[in-house]
Amino acid sequence: MAIKRTDNVGIVLADIDTAIEFFSELGREIEGRAPTEGDWADDVTGLPTACVFSGGSGLRRHF
């Protein structure tokens, strides 16, 4: 069975640009980037000085 859709996936990574390139090569297109920094981002990721891209950001596949 093929995956037809994914929702609310969180991925912690060191290099957002490399990840965007990787998913672009899989046929995904970036929708946007909305950075969030500070205590909340640190708590969510468990990493100090984290930056979270959220709020409408994502990768979309065009069929």
Q: Can you give a write-up of this model?
A:
The protein starts with 15 loop residues before the first helix and ends with a strand. The protein has a domain at 31-63. It has helices spanning 16-25, 39-45, and strands at 28-32, 35-37, 51-53, 58-61. Strands 1-4 form a two-stranded antiparallel sheet. It has a two-stranded antiparallel sheet with strand order 2-3. 27% of the residues lie in helices and 24% in strands. The mean pLDDT is 72. With 63 residues, the protein is an alpha+beta fold.
Through-space gap between termini: 17 Å
Oligomer category:
single chain
Structural class: alpha+beta
Q: How are the strands ordered across the major sheet?
A: 1-4
Number of DSSP strands?
Answer: 4
- Mean pLDDT level: 72
The major β-sheet equals: 2 strands, antiparallel
- Strand portion: 15-25%
- Radius of gyration (CA) equals 13 Å
User: Helix amount, in percent?
Assistant: 25-40%
- The sequence of SSEs as H and E is HEEHEE
Number of helices: 2
Low-confidence stretches: none
So what's the overall shape? globular
Layout of strands and helices, then pairs:
Blueprint: H1 16-25, E1 28-32, E2 35-37, H2 39-45, E3 51-53, E4 58-61
Antiparallel strand pairs: 1-4, 2-3
At a glance:
By secondary structure, the protein is of the alpha+beta class. It contains 2 helices and 4 strands. It is globular.
